[in-house]
Task: structure prediction
Amino acid sequence: MRSIFLLFFLYLTIGIEASELNFTCPDEQAHKLFERVQELAKVSPLDQAESGYAIVIQQAGRRSMDDLSLRLACKALATKTFRSKCSDYGYECPHPGSDLMEWPAQINHWIPTLKANVPALRSCPDAYIHEDPKLPIVRAIPVLSADIVNGRITGWVTLRVDIDESGNVTDARVDSSTSPRLNESALEAVRRFRYQATLRDSKYVASSNVSATVYFHYWHLAEAAGCLVGHE
Result:
């Protein structure tokens, strides 16, 4: 009982700090939507989860504070559809035993087809379905400046990075951005990404001009403002 009281007191204290910054913390509905996305991730087969994802996408698309749940739902529905219904929609299925790391580029190519065949995905921003062709094994969370938090700036930054033989990022540059004010934070974060080393002809090699994306969600801003939240 005492621990519950202390947690509640902490929540109130954090809420007061956030309110002093005039920042609205994610509300009960936002938390429920986030929990619902996590529940749907465990539901199989896709037919039993598809309607649930559609509802989450519809509800989350109406409010800026639910953009994290929107991205997770869009990404999960698109990926599960690609894996389970690829032949139905006329694109090549991943071959049995294929490395999951090979799939994102294929999913990106078929985003228009996925949106045409899955009504729930039509309201999803392409960036929320898109996967970087080479996925990092360590993804750093961006450090948010007061300017980003106070300005309620969300969105994403796509970058191009060079990777050495060990999987470390040696150089990074912005390719496109929803807001220039996010660029420096995204650059700082992507430099801390780490990738699986690329093996070619029995030798580890460097990679250049690799696409990478850093997202800035409302919940990340809320946490920086002092709200009590949980996220990916």
Notes: Residues 1-20 have pLDDT under 50 and may be disordered. The radius of gyration is 19 Å. Strands lie at 136-138, 155-163, 169-177, 194-195, 198-200, 203-205, 207-216.
